[in-house]
Amino acid sequence: MVEHLILFNAEASPEEVRGMVRKAQEVLLKIPGVCGLRYGEALSKGARYRYWLSILFEGPEVVPFYRDHPLHVEFADTVFRPMAQDRITTDYLVLTEVLCGK
What we know:
Layout: E1 2-9, H1 14-28, E2 34-41, E3 51-57, H2 62-68, H3 70-83, E4 86-93
Protein name: Dabb family protein
Organism: Thermus caliditerrae
Pfam families: Dabb
């Protein structure tokens, strides 16, 4: 699995950012090889990046396919990038995942 992690600040209200995330779920999860999407907000008001978005891919081969996929390109160009100009993005190979149980 690969985690496409984006840390960002937005020129938008928190409600508008959450709307963008809903649109990301609606669009990006339709791309073959995309198997999940997570979103979060910093607990600390002084954090360098206020928001994070994680798109999960089934494997490394999905990275170039996703990058060039028309659904991703349109979403990124028209919705995400105009809102989140201050961002960093890195792809991580997931080597270990341990989840807490209830």
